[in-house]
Predict the structure of Anti-sigma factor RsbW.
Amino acid sequence: MVRALTRTLAVVADITLAADEVCTQLIASARPGSDLHCTITPAEHRLRITIAAHMEHPGVPRRQGIGWHVLDTLTDSLSVSENPADTDPTGLDVVVDFVKHRAIEIGLAEDRGQPALTCPSASQSASPGTCTG
């Protein structure tokens, strides 16, 4: 589904790796028998991914270490919320929410902040990577 909503494989790889890291941490500490919920919400130039689980203890996912650094690097925004569970007074509902911006056709190359160059075919210069006025 993510591949259908993005224009570049780099964005797909970033989202897949970030979601895998979140799910791995949540599954490892989730209450036995609980479900993991993932929601992908597309917007015009970004995808919002929300992953939620019912936990026994606070502090998951860990906000330090290499896993968190990877998440912070791969995403454009990242947040975690912990709330008392409605159905279990001893547990927590943990929600990890991250956003990844998508490249637009004439905007950013590979979603990496590099200016993209799109020339009308008649204005293509003899030099690669340039357009003529």
Remarks:
- The CA atoms of residues 13 and 89 lie 37 Å apart.
- The chain has one domain: 2-102.
- The helical segments are 2-5, 9-29, 66-74.
